[in-house]
């Protein structure tokens, strides 16, 4: 499934050729698709490894970032994160960097894998607190670590306004786009964030949260790793049930202004996802639509 105009096609034959060239001992291990996101394609290798390949040259920048920083951040986090075992180099058949990680056993967080959503929200908040408290180690909001979600909302307004219009055309009456835009514009009038910059995962949605034994076990996909204000980090909480959302809020003791800005970031990612992936990635569009619907319901209850 091709999602981007500049995407580099990947299949099992290509992946096996990379392995045989760079890690011959792994070249004949069983290989099977292990999912694909908006930025990367994954293959399970044997029982204990995961091959992760970026879709585009821009995505490859995130791969380099993970390779550089995950080994340095992991010791400060109490939950497992991807463990790099091979940093793949570009070749003539795949001209981008790629990675092999240790396989993390578990399943995507969801209604069939989580037993106690209150506890899950509390545990996720604890992971976020740990990540945000790690020393920056000289890193700054610059270069590969300056993702837009770590900044302020206002620079995104023109882009997101166009996405609202796209959603009115595509989703139409299935979603209260007018209410979502009102919440977005209300957040734009609020004070700019002024606290210290912190480490940000950038995309703590359920597909990046691994459950085991009914609880949060691991956090994966650090492609959005960045330095910035923490508001957008909280945006994916609307992908979870209300009880997890409330427990998360209570644990971090978030104020109303931070919550409103986080909600605005959730809206921005949702409407832009629908706009960009409407024709190419229906499963992701459904995720965005569910998030936006949850925001409308939650806002009406507060």
From TrEMBL:
InterPro entries associated with the record: AGP_Transferase, Aminoglycoside_PTrfase, Kinase-like_dom_sf
Assigned EC number: 2.7.-.-
Cross-referenced Pfam families: APH (PF01636)
One GO molecular-function entry: transferase activity
Keywords: Transferase
Enzyme class: transferase
Boundaries of every Aminoglycoside phosphotransferase domain copy: 32-265
SUPFAM superfamilies in UniProt: Protein kinase-like (PK-like)
Record-linked PANTHER family: AMINOGLYCOSIDE PHOSPHOTRANSFERASE-RELATED-RELATED, BIFUNCTIONAL AAC_APH
Name by which UniProt lists this protein: Aminoglycoside phosphotransferase family protein
Organism: Streptomyces ossamyceticus
